[in-house]
Design a protein that fits this description.
The protein has helices at 5-30, 73-86; strands at 61-63, 70-72. The protein is mostly helical and 88 residues long. The chain has 2 domains: 1-32; 35-88, no CATH class. Strands 1-2 form a two-stranded antiparallel ribbon. A hairpin with a 6-residue loop joins β1 and β2 (70-72). Bound molecules: zinc ion. Zinc ion (ZN) binds next to loops.
Length: 88
């Protein structure tokens, strides 16, 4: 869409900022606290042991070879996001 990579990054950053502002606005309307969480490793990290491993997004289940924890991928990711939000 935009061939200039610097301009594309700027547009992407602006869109992300606008989205965060919109989320905060909607949160205020509904009386909900909105906390931004960096998405780094949220789907690769084991929510039980904290072990991070390379994992394909095609897999629907999270299986930790470190502690043996098995969970649906999205549930594991959501637990990591919730913990990150509560730690802020
Ligand atoms: Zn684990």
């Amino acid at each position: 869409m935009v061939k200039n990579h610097h301009l594309a990054k700027s547009i992407s950053d602006t869109a992300q900022l606008r989205f965060c502002q919109w989320l905060e606005y909607v949160g205020k309307i509904f009386g909900v606290t909105v906390i931004a969480v960096a998405p780094d490793y949220t789907f690769r990290e084991c929510s039980s042991s904290g072990e991070i491993r390379k994992q394909s997004r095609d897999l629907r289940a999270h299986r930790c070879f470190h502690c043996g924890y098995v969970e649906e991928r999205d549930v594991n990711t959501n637990k990591n996001i919730l913990r990150a939000a509560l730690c802020q």
